[in-house]
Amino acid sequence: MRAARTAASYGARVAIAEAGPFGGTCVNVGCIPKKLFAYAAQFRDAFRDAADFGWRLAAPAFDWPTLRRNKDREIARLAGVYERLLAEAGVFIVRGRARLRDPHTVEVAGERYRARHILVATGSRPVKPPIPGAELGITSDDAFFLERLPARALVVGGGYVALEFASILNGLGVRTTLAYRGARLLRGFDAELGERIAAELAKKGIDVRLRANPARLDAGIEVAFEDGARERYDLVLFATGRRPNTGGLGLEAAGVALSAEGAVIVDRYSKSSVDSIHAIGDVTNRVNLTPVATAEAMWLARTLFRGEPTPVDHENVPTAVFADPNVACVGLAEEAARARFGAVDVYTASFRALRHTLGARDERVFLKLVVEPRTQRVVGAHMIGPEAGEVIQGIAIAVKAGLTKAQFDATIGIHPTVAEEFVTMRAKTR
């Protein structure tokens, strides 16, 4: 959508083919409905905390159909807004699934369209592991449309989606187990974040099991784990990976090279192995985040239609995991920074947020700065805690700008806030 609208604003004649509702994964079965569900799940702790601040409330009761109905209404509204914005930008909308016939021809619903440039931005889809009985489980796509909440759920995985849905289900009153085959959660993130978030999720009541992997699902739903354990659940949600949506598009016949997992292989300008065909977003399996895809769209539109060749810039991309508590980061993990620079200075802080000091909750905030010692540039910032995504968005500007630890230290904090700790950490942890 962003590529179509931006290209049209530069004077290009643009058509867009879409078989489903506009908005892709993010709007329909991703970021937006997931964040709405996460908000709903956080009210449980808010009700509990309210008593510590003097509020007396009747016992709250949660109604899943109300949340689902209101979510569906908002998502339908957003999809309509996006379609209207495309039309207002002058983009010609073609309804149906597209298939390439040659490097300049696309067929949709029996009609053929010729174009100088073709852009593939078909995203990715969740996949289930190849184990017996996997069909008894669901994926994140299905979770948004459950008829009722289960009493007991198993979430399988250790990444964004797994942690977020484990937190959502747990917050809505479901007895939740999170099982991951690895030794720590959030592979690819800073190791300390993965270790600490496991402890925080456990404090929330989630049964976190590491080095635990289902071997099969039997009727019931009974799950047999690789270590021999067997347990019964009402729902199993697989959050074990995604695959690019490249099947049936005619890409290979058009000469487009694909990776082993089916992603479109592109250069730094998002061009495929065929000069006239480009690809952006999750279908390229580079940095699979919605804001990255929209940035790639704008860079490509400048390259093709504004005469400004603009390579993709995936350096210092901030990201957040909307688990409870939030995890967010920008820049290099400590391990990656050590691999790149040989040595780093690390600053950390861990404490109970002021909000939690009047009650019995032992939820702890964690903040971390990774500094390159020669230039003293801050090359990584990491956080676990409330609204971590909101905090790191601001810190990301500083990291992207290449600011030094001294410049962080010279910045006056806003007191009392959690975020002020990013400018008050003076002593090196290591």
Quickly describe the structure.
The protein is an alpha/beta fold and 430 residues long. The protein is built from 11 helices and 21 strands.
Number of domains: 3
Helix content: 25-40%
Total helical elements: 11
Low-confidence stretches: none
Beta-sheet strand percentage? 15-25%
Spatial strand sequence of the major β-sheet: 17-18-21-20-19
Structural class label: alpha/beta
The name of the CATH architecture of the largest domain is 3-Layer(bba) Sandwich
Main pleated-sheet profile? 5 strands, antiparallel
Average pLDDT, rounded to a whole number, is 97
In CATH, what is the class of the largest domain? Answer: Alpha Beta
C-alpha end-to-end distance: 46 Å
Radius of gyration: 23 Å
Explain the overall architecture:
This protein has eleven helices and 21 strands. It has 430 residues and is an alpha/beta fold. The chain has three domains: 2-123 and 243-305, FAD/NAD(P)-binding domain, CATH 3.50.50; 134-240, FAD/NAD(P)-binding domain; 325-423, Enolase-like, domain 1, CATH 3.30.390. A hairpin with a 3-residue loop joins strand 11 and strand 12 (222-225). The longest helix has 25 residues, at 64-88. The chain starts with a helix and ends in a 20-residue tail after the last helix. 37% of the residues are buried.
